[in-house]
Every structure is written in structure tokens, then in C-alpha cells.
Amino acid sequence: MSHPTSFDRDISRRIKDLRDVLNLSPEDLSGRLGVPAEDVLAYETGTRDVPVSYLYALAKATGVDLTALITGSEAKLHQYSLVKKGDGLSVTRRKAYKYQALAYRFNRPAMEPFIVTVPPREPGELEFNQHAGQEFIFLLEGRMEVMLGKETEILEPRDSLYFSSTIPHAMRALDGKEAVFLDVII
User: Fold this and answer.
1) Is residue 33 packed enough to be buried (19+ CB in 10 Å), middle (13-18) or exposed (0-12)?
2) What is the torsional sign of CA 125, 90, 169, 62?
3) Lowest CB count within 10 Å: 52, 95, 109, 134, which one?
4) What does the mean pLDDT of the chain come to?
5) Contact 37, 81 (CB under 8 A)
6) CB 102 within 8 A of CB 115
7) Residue 32 contacts by C-beta under 8 Å, 6 or more apart in sequence?
8) What global pTM score does this model have?
């Protein structure tokens, strides 16, 4: 892992503080989120990168706004939120992908949409992820291979994929070019 930035340390501190405020042990939180207690502690100490999916699950399970976990302040908008092209909140929580949060200004959104950029990788370099909920992918640019458990799907621009996020999943761009997609987590 690379050295944590102050942004990373702030997020780790906020998730640790949240667990403390809620008077939950790492095991309690582990049970709520379906992740090992060792992962909870690793995310809180900054010894492991915190996946966006973990932050989303933590926000949902505790009733805390995802934007508050990421930035330290709650989103204010309740009616609508316009995010212009390129103005999404950059969330570098998984080194494998680049995320831009699109609902970060809206207070307690029912879903979390992101624009995600995935680089080309070799199959052995893939990082699998799984978390509670469901996920919707709409490919905007490039071609992408998505592994869902033992199944593999190839997405072309304008293809979509809806799946249970509890399935271990990983993706990589194909043809030596980045792939860009809209990702909605619920």
C-alpha cells in the first residue's frame, strides 16, 4: 500500500470516530456490514485502502451521510443536485479505479451514483470486491470485462449490467484503453 494521504487519514479517523460514537466494537460493526473485524480495524487505522463500497455500506448501516464520511460535512441539498461534467467529488478509495461521486451534494440519497474509470489490467492483477446491496453499471466508453464469481461478461459502450453486489466482482478495461462507466450502488 502507498503511504496514506491526509485525506485517507481523515476518512480512517472519521470511520473510527463513528464506531466509537455508536459504541460498537469492531466485531459488532463487522456483523452489521458482513466484513471481517480485521478489515474494520485495518480501514480505521489506515493500513488498508477503504473501498467506496465499504463506506457506502457503513453509511447505510449507521444512517450517516456518505458525503459526511468522505468530506467531514453533510450534504445540504434536499430537492435536487446538479453536478456538471467533471465536477463530481473525486473519491480515491480504491487504487484500482478512479471514482467521481455524483450525489455528494444531496442530503442522504437513496442510491450512490459514481462515474468510474477502470484502467486496462492483466487478469492476475484484478482485485475482487463484494458488499451488501445491488449495483448497476452502464458502460459509457471503452470495452470492459466484468467477472461475477466464476462468470465473465464483456461490456461494450451502452451495455448495462445489474447484479447483486454480494457476488465477488472485479473488472478491467480491454484493448489497452481505459473504460468509463456510470455505477449506481443501492
Assistant:
1) buried
2) positive
3) 95
4) 86
5) no
6) yes
7) 24, 61
8) 0.69
